[in-house]
Design a protein that fits this description.
4 helices, 220 residues, 7 strands, single chain
Length: 220
């Protein structure tokens, strides 16, 4: 399956397995699922991250993403100085937060993430969010993203690889606000590979996304 935070969802699966079976696709492979820990990261950032303003000013307004105070993000992927690469970074940052907003809103068809996801990636992400909705679960904690590698092709497509530290974020069950905390292991570090395409409005939409937990490249 194509989706983010495989270890967080795996922890949700383990918690709910006794009552309801939550499907999980893959295990420590490029299909995007696997692991047994939770998502997370440090708060604050020593380097400025790319922002949505890195893209053309003529582009339409992006959806507003207001996340609760118990979620925080560090994007250790500073601007490259290349206009297209910085736009990929900026839109990817917003796409990550947009998925989390859909989980918080308990809405598998939330407009914010659908603004950034297309085709296969949108379909997989919808199922990913639906799993949280089915289990009446949300997320809390802090997240760090780092080690970005961006390639932009002349045909308006791009590939983006990055790491996520999932050590300090957790599943939160909405019925009782109980937070499931787990220990940090090698599988708390996940690598993502995304394919993007620039649409007619200049937005870099994610076409596909795959992940692998326990990536040696992402280990501290």
């Amino acid at each position: 399956m194509n989706r983010r935070r495989p270890t967080l969802l795996a922890a949700l699966t383990l918690t709910a397995a006794a009552a309801l079976t939550l499907s999980a696709c893959g295990s420590d492979d490029s299909s995007g699922k696997g692991a047994d820990e939770i998502a997370g990261a440090d708060t604050g950032s020593s380097t400025p991250s790319a922002s949505p303003t890195a893209t053309d000013s003529a582009e339409p307004d992006r959806p507003k993403i207001d996340l609760p105070a118990d979620l925080s993000y560090t994007f250790d992927w500073p601007k490259t100085g290349d206009k297209d690469k910085d736009a990929v970074l900026a839109d990817s940052e917003q796409s990550i937060k947009a998925v989390d907003l859909a989980i918080v809103n308990q809405d598998p068809l939330d407009k914010a993430y659908l603004y950034y996801y297309e085709g296969e990636a949108a379909a997989g992400t919808q199922k990913f969010i639906q799993n949280y909705v089915d289990q009446k679960a949300s997320i809390t904690g802090s997240y760090r993203f780092y080690a970005p590698e961006v390639t932009v092709d002349e045909d308006g497509t791009a590939s983006f690889t990055y790491c996520e530290d999932q050590g300090k974020a957790y599943v939160k069950f909405l019925e009782n606000n109980k937070v499931r905390k787990t220990e940090v292991t090698a599988k708390s570090y996940v690598i993502y590979h995304t394919s993007l395409k620039k649409n007619s409005d200049g937005i870099w939409e994610i076409q596909s996304i795959a992940s692998q937990s326990g990536s040696a490249k992402c280990q501290p």
